[in-house]
Amino acid sequence: MSRPFRLSVLDQSIAVSGRPQDQSIRNTVSLARHCEALGYERFWVSEHHNHPTIVGTAPEIVMAAIAATTERIRIGSAGIMLPHYSPFKVAEVFRVLEALAPGRIDMGLGRAPGSDGRTAFALNPAANERPEHFPADVRDLIAWVNNQPLVERHPFGSVKAFPQSPTSPEVWILGSSDYGAQVAALFGLPYCYAWFFSDGAGGERAIDLYKRSYRPSARHPEPHSALCVWALAAETTEKAQYHFTSRALSRINRDKNILGPLLPPDEAGKAPLADFERAKMEQFRKDSFVGTGPEVAARITELKERVGVDEMAVVTWTHDEQVRRDSYTELAKAYGFAP
């Protein structure tokens, strides 16, 4: 199969039963090297807090580690939850990252807390006030990270973000609602919709809104959109569905606010479930991008063309780390860009 578009990876450093959580962080760094060798375009890492399942809490640190051990692949945050932080500090962090990997840094920004309200308050006692300032914070951050002047009479107009360099990070807005699409369009930024987070609900509307309201910017004269989907590929459909059991149970438990490490497929398959939960799990199996490499690639391509986006990204959870690595290999082979 010819390579029809750029395909990227989102990794969330998932906790799994029977494995120390710190290993999940090291596995993320190792996976980035693996995906670079396979020919993936970008490798993004997420930010969550106080989450027993998703233990990636500091994407900027993981990005630095990945930058030190890769050469080509773009490295990004998916995303920095901006309401937790000072835009100036975020600009400084990403100027340093740009110095470590010139021309390879994506600064993905989100408005959601990536946590519960109490945790958001622990991160930043003023966090409840920040979401309403999100557009202004994005505006200032774009200026600082690109060494451009802030708006006239800005109280911090004389403050610069160092180090300076000839290149600057590519700024993305990430989201799972119309709001992020509107912010991305307002500032002329690329936009990625978290299709996996909402099972696609509202995704086509958000992408359409983004395109219709897009205001061209110097760096991005045309809108540039992407979707991130959950997928799992294996040598056989049966094997893929077997390992998907861990993720399916985790999703059902999430809906009940039961969070914890990913269980092995055998254990997950024996979990006591109500009839309606078993029906929901079977529906997950039908709706999810799970199967052989060609089967999953075909579904990803169909969705890309149907929604009309420029790029796709994939996130994969498995209990067995080698199965996860193999999934990205199978998908790269299906698209014809694995070496």
UniProtKB/TrEMBL annotation:
Highest taxon in the source lineage: Bacteria
Signal peptide: none
Family: To bacterial alkanal monooxygenase alpha and beta chains.
Taxonomic lineage from the root: Bacteria, Pseudomonadati, Pseudomonadota, Alphaproteobacteria, Hyphomicrobiales
Residue ranges occupied by any Luciferase-like domain in the UniProt entry: 20-310
Species of provenance: Reyranella aquatilis
Protein name in the entry: LLM class flavin-dependent oxidoreductase
Coiled coil: none
InterPro entries, alphabetized: Bact_Lucif_Oxidored, CmoO-like, Luciferase-like_dom, Luciferase-like_sf
